[in-house]
Amino acid sequence: MPAAARQRQLLTLLAATCVVPMAIVPVRAADADHPAAPEIDLVAPMRAPVGEAVVIRGRNFSRKTRFSTVVFRGPRGGAAFARPIRAFPRKLVVRVPTTVERLMRTADDDSSTTLPTRFRLRVVSEGRRSKLTGPLRSPLVVPAPPEG
């Protein structure tokens, strides 16, 4: 058999054997460069004044504060954003931003009186985002106490 024909036969055989193993490689192996999305398991305290720290426990958070953002989503869909004070892979510590006050519910008779409002949270970490917290895991944000 000529060398060129033998070489073609080997290449054909090699190509046929390579296609099958590549087809059964699990997809998860390719996801090593794309870690899982963050998940929120617990928020404490569940009643927090504006400006106070809140601890968020979960998984897949970035350990660098500059790569994480916590979104406070108001009852009418508006959002306020905050960077964590401390960040760990399973825990974030964040202050309730003062910008949530503009999203808080107000008394019907007096628009200057803000009422405690439940905010749903989402963590955005290294471009990946968690689901919004449900009502049982969403903190009730209360207005900041008056100064003085």
- Classification by helices and strands: alpha+beta
Cα shape: elongated
Query: Can you tell me the CATH superfamily of the largest domain?
Result: Immunoglobulins
For the secondary structure, the number of strands is 11
Q: What's the order of the H and E elements?
A: HEEEEEEEEEEE
Q: What is the radius of gyration computed over CA atoms, rounded to a whole number of angstroms?
A: 25 Å
Count the helices. How many? 1
Number of domains: 2
Any idea of the CATH topology of the largest domain? Immunoglobulin-like
- Strands in their spatial order, largest beta sheet: 1-3-7-6
Please estimate the helix content: 10-25%
CATH class value of the largest domain: Mainly Beta
Mean pLDDT: 85
Characterize the largest beta sheet: strand count, sense, and whether it forms a barrel.
Answer: 4 strands, antiparallel
What does this structure look like?
- The structure is a single chain.
- With 148 residues, the chain is α+β, with helices and mostly antiparallel strands.
- The chain is 14% helix and 32% strand.
- The chain has two domains: 30 residues; 108 residues, Immunoglobulins (Immunoglobulin-like).
- The longest helix is centred in the first third of the chain and has 21 residues.
- The radius of gyration is 25 Å and the shape is elongated.
List keywords for this structure.
single chain, 2 domains, 148 residues, 1 helix, Immunoglobulin-like, four-stranded antiparallel β-sheet, 11 strands, elongated, alpha+beta
